[in-house]
Amino acid sequence: MPGSLAMTSVRPRVSVLVPTFEQEHFIVRALASLQAQTLDAWEAVVVDDGSRDGTAAAVAPFLEDVRIRYLALDANGGLGRALNVALDATTAPLVAYLPSDDVMYPRHLESQAAALVAAPHAVLAHAGVRWHYNREAAGRIPGECLQLVQAMHRRTGLRWTERAELESDDLDRMYWSRLLALGAGVGTGTVTCEWVDHPRQRHKLMREPEGGINPFRSHYRVRAPLRFHTRTGNPIDEAALYRRLRERPPTPRAADGLTILLVGELAYNAERVLALEEQGHALYGLWTDTPHWFNTVGPLPFGHVTDLPRDDWCAALRRLRPDLIYAQLNWQAVPFAHEVLLASAGIPFVWHFKEGPFICLNKGIWPQLLDLYRMADGRIFSSPEARDWFDAASPGLARTRPCHVLDGDLPKRDWFAGTPAPPLSAADGAVHTVVPGRPIGLHPPVVAALAAAGIHLHFYGDFTQGQWREWIATTQALAPRHLHLHGNVAQDRWVEEFSRYDAGWLHCFTSRNEGDVRRADWDDLNLPARIATLAAAGLPLIQRDNGDAVVAAQSLARRLGIGLFYDDVDDLAAQLRDGQRMRGVRERMWQERERFCFDTHVLDLVAFFRHVIAGAGSGPRVAG
Q1: What contacts 513, CB < 8 A, 6 or more positions away?
Q2: Domain count of the chain?
Q3: Please, are residues 154 and 168 in contact by the beta-carbon 8 Å criterion?
Q4: Bridge-based pairing state of the strands 563-566 and 541-544
Q5: Tell me, what's the pLDDT at 9?
Q6: Domain at 62, CATH number
Q7: Would 429 be classed as within a structural domain?
Q8: Which residues of the chain are under the pLDDT cut of 70?
Q9: Which run of H or E residues covers position 392?
């Protein structure tokens, strides 16, 4: 009888594994659906993977059912570990799954078990599933692997892949592929469960752009470097990439070393902050708790930064009493940085902003951004043009308190140490250019014109390519032999990989500001993060000639003599084929390339910090 509590004398046919993490509002519905099963010879174990919410209290009433047990793990160890703990705690010959945010319909277990009885050669049975609240699939959901709630399989000795080896939303890699190597899978032919759609589903937290490695790390409180690969993204091996940085001994504290609290998020090339630690300064971190995929937050995978607890950060801040708060970097950090600003009276506060102010206007956080600039003891602008824009938007802003100019996304010097590779052009005589990331402004007809001029375009980033499929298809039809697609390249291979090319593309756009900084938009003010990637490999920067317009990247490249500026494709082709000119621009880039690593600027940055500390006031901060 469904819902029976007296099952102690019946050997369970099915072990139901219920992994959960901070889903107190879902798990009651899930367990109630389990108790409503027409097949009642089951046992279930809820494995609570380090929740800090009310999950234990939500589960407690269900423990009156002797078929249900509850195991609480001290800290989150990942889905694979939770499932292996559940496998070890159960014994039935069949294994089914009920993630705590999913639902079983009454005949779910019965129909799956019957399918396995009818197909003794099969090792797995899968049910049809409802998903996205009103869609149904008889088997796999389009574009997805088989979901846990859909599956029942015979017990084997196989184990789920755990976090130390790989963290992924690809359940085929984690288990199903190895299981199905042992036997066939069969479908029940009926929809008997629901893969519940909500913003905190695990795969959504993992996949860019809604999720990603940083939202995943923050949500699950991951302490160790990750080997991370989703079904739609690039593989990331933090354990390998940052091993040397992480395992080196801490730098002894300098006699005049500062205690610096990093606040907000670190965006791209986050390991740059180690250049401060290597000068004998102590680093602490206090991070925004809702990062986007590119907003790097702690615990940082390269170590040497001690995190303050996020749940009682005000008290922790008072205990630490740092010499300086260094708050940064993009618009997602603005609300929390503003909160810390108001709570940190008496502690010198520096605000460093990289993102365009226009997003803050659109998101409704312009008042907080202005407060950060007006009330901070020191302000850092990403470019002179960004400084001038803010001064025009709020007159006198850049002059009332100390300010500094420093691009916020500069990488650490370590990634500039590779050995350059022979250029492709030396082998085939053609011109090869590269775009690491979005090919902004390189419309398909432009690439076709480049191809007609014998210029190849190498487009890097397989995740980005997935977002540009239509562009790729159109461009390949127009320039089939001159568009080349490549995967993502980690920092430690920048020099080796990109030095093969003749020049690299920045964002290509026509400025409309006519030299008036008030009319500048983000394209005008931005210094794209790829500048440092190309500089590391010694590549000249290709960009449209915007004349006398206010364009930060153009001003920088002209001042240093490291750019190629073009009006049309024929003009650019002539420059790229001018051997003497290209040798001169490449030589200047090699001479200037270390300006594009963070380490070069650390001494000036620390001098700025000391200047701010010396002049900081101690009165209360009041928002405008």
Answers
A1: 519, 520, 521, 524, 549, 550
A2: 3
A3: no
A4: parallel
A5: 61
A6: 3.90.550.10
A7: yes
A8: 1-9, 398-399, 618-622, 624
A9: helix 384-393
